[in-house]
Amino acid sequence: MVRVMAVGIFDLLHAGHLHYLEQAKSLGDELVVVVAHDDTVRNQKHEPITGQELRRRMVAGLKPVDEAIVGNPPSVPIFDILDVVKPDKIALGYDQKHSIEAVRAGLERQGHGHIEVVRVEGLSDDLDGTRKIISKILDLWTGTEDGPYEED
């Protein structure tokens, strides 16, 4: 049984997320997804649009996902989650900022050098990311692209 771990924020769940998780699942038998803690999202990106428990529930409902858990807050060392998940592989998304080499080096330092790190391919769609989707909505709303949006 090969356990794969995928990590992400998963705010405004979209096709790019599904593609990432489908590819991650194809790397093994079981997929455990770690959904970023709200405080981690605030520290790394922005105020979350949806809270961590709702994001976890949405991810858990996707077909490729066997289990979804909320990650630790940023006050807990990042590699501590490995003791909970116990993955054989870590799947990195095509657009995640972490380099495979840096993750492998961190795993080695923490005594988890046996875990394989794989970067999955991106979705060839122009709306495969949250920022792209928000930008498209804003363009439509403000009238800069086939708009302005009008309610029925």
TrEMBL record:
GO terms for molecular function: ATP binding; nucleotidyltransferase activity. The keyword Zinc does not apply. Keywords: ATP-binding, Nucleotide-binding, Nucleotidyltransferase, Transferase. It holds the Pfam family CTP_transf_like. The keyword Transferase applies. SUPFAM superfamilies: Nucleotidylyl transferase. It comes from the Archaea. InterPro entries: Archaeal_FAD_synthase, Cyt_trans-like, Rossmann-like_a/b/a_fold. Residues 5-100 form the Cytidyltransferase-like domain. NCBIfam families: cyt_tran_rel. PANTHER family: FAD SYNTHASE. This is FAD synthase.
